[in-house]
Specification:
The chain has 419 residues and is α+β, with helices and mostly antiparallel strands. Helix content is 38%, strand content 21%. It has 15 helices and 16 strands.
């Protein structure tokens, strides 16, 4: 016998026992997004490799280490499984001129792919909801997206998530700060680990996000970008903070928060939890006003975020959030006449808007009732040869102490629909 196939490391199956909670997460997010006027866009999972090099940044971990890329055998195109969603969404906005008639609020959902070290809450195929707005310059949309997430956590029953907020200024401010930071870290070169030394002259802001405990005091003493911002950047950030205060959303200003992608400017934020160990960020994003132009479009202000669905799913489990897939009826059918009629009765019940699990494969009345109990259906509907001949069905409550009763199918439907 040949060896059994197994899923690839970091790629996993979501089993039926888990999908009810996944669907609750996805449907709740879709409903909340609709409340804020965001429209769904469906994007391909394969994009040109250069799209991510130009957007995410050539010297980021994603591009340098983590992308699944290959050369197309037919035409030599360099292709990549999307490691994040913003670049593809911007590409679609530019390609289809979506902002021609005004600003856009968009969202998408699906798998992303990064070759990372696999651990709880971090997979190589993972799922995100991405939310992007295009054409809004002020901090009101930054605030709207953060407040939207606060509402989503409430709707999902998630507590104790903290909002970390920062501003990384505009490109010219960041370029000046970059030189200041390089000079500071060069003065502490002996304390830098190998990863920090590699980033020193390519992406020094990422050193601020290092988790190396031996570097924390030195990083904490580094110059702060927020202290050297110009008037416009500072006004934007102060406006955002005030709107969040007005909305009752608590936040912590974290000057070390820079996010790992090159396209951000001004606002950056993360929602974090202490319940998931090292993988504590469940959503993050910010403003990226230069990306549309960088990818071939007209200058367009933009802001967005991504939600890590695996981590939110784990957090929902941590808080005991439940979602049960429950049928209205488990149809027990015993005897030749009943078996022949079961499909027709099941369809009549579904025509009435009821969810029905029809027993298939025969078996005794006792074994079928055990399966009805395990199904968690609200009722067992029993049809045997006697019921077929009398034109009735037996209806037994499975989740309460009510009595089993014989009814016409029409009466049973009415009871099921109004119970």
């Amino acid at each position: 016998m040949s060896d059994k196939f197994q899923s690839i490391k970091g790629f996993y199956d979501i089993l039926p026992e888990q999908t009810a909670l996944w669907q609750k997460l996805e449907s709740t997010a879709a409903r909340v997004l609709a409340q804020y006027g965001y429209r769904n866009i469906r994007l391909p999972i394969v994009e040109p490799t250069d799209l991510f090099v130009r957007s995410v940044g050539e010297h980021t971990d994603i591009v340098e280490k983590e992308m699944y890329s290959w050369e197309d055998k037919l035409n030599g195109d360099r292709l990549t499984l999307r490691p994040e969603g913003t670049a593809g969404c911007v590409r679609a906005v530019v390609e289809h001129s979506l902002t021609y008639n005004g600003p856009q609020r968009l969202w998408y959902m699906g798998p992303m792919f990064r070759h990372e070290n696999v651990q709880k809450g971090r997979q190589r195929q993972f799922h995100q909801i991405g939310v992007e707005s295009f054409g809004f310059t002020g901090p009101d949309v930054d605030a709207e997206q953060i407040i939207l997430l606060a509402r989503l956590w409430r709707e999902l029953g998630i507590q104790d998530v903290a909002l970390h907020l920062n501003t990384i200024g505009d490109a010219t401010e960041r370029a000046e700060y970059r030189q200041t930071l390089i000079k500071y870290f060069e003065g502490h070169a002996a304390m830098l680990d190998e990863d920090a030394k590699r980033r020193l002259h390519t992406n020094p802001l990422r050193i601020l996000d290092s988790k190396n405990p031996t570097m924390q005091a030195m990083i904490e003493a580094a110059p702060k970008l927020i202290d050297v911002l110009g008037t416009e950047s500072r006004t934007h950030f102060e406006g955002l903070c005030q709107q969040l205060r007005d909305a009752g959303v608590d936040f912590e200003i974290n000057p070390r928060l820079v996010r790992g992608l090159d396209y951000y400017n001004r606002t950056v934020f993360e929602w974090v939890t202490t319940r998931l160990g090292s993988q504590g960020t469940i959503a993050g994003g910010g403003r990226y006003d230069s990306l549309v132009e960088r990818l071939g479009g007209s200058a367009t202000p933009a802001c967005g975020f991504g939600i890590g669905l695996e981590r939110v799913f784990l957090l929902m489990q941590e808080y005991g959030v439940e979602a049960i897939e429950q049928a209205d009826v488990y149809l027990v059918n015993v005897g030749e006449l009943a078996e022949a009629k079961a499909l027709i009765v099941s369809e009549q019940l579904r025509d009435a808007g009821l969810a029905v699990v029809m027993h298939a494969g025969g078996g005794s009345f006792k074994s079928q009732m055990k399966k009805a109990d395990r199904s968690k259906a609200r009722y067992a509907m029993i049809i045997g040869d006697d019921e077929i001949q009398s034109g009735q069905v037996s209806l037994k409550p499975m989740l309460s102490a009510g009595e089993q009763q014989k009814l016409t199918l029409e009466s049973a439907v009415q009871l099921l629909k109004h119970d």
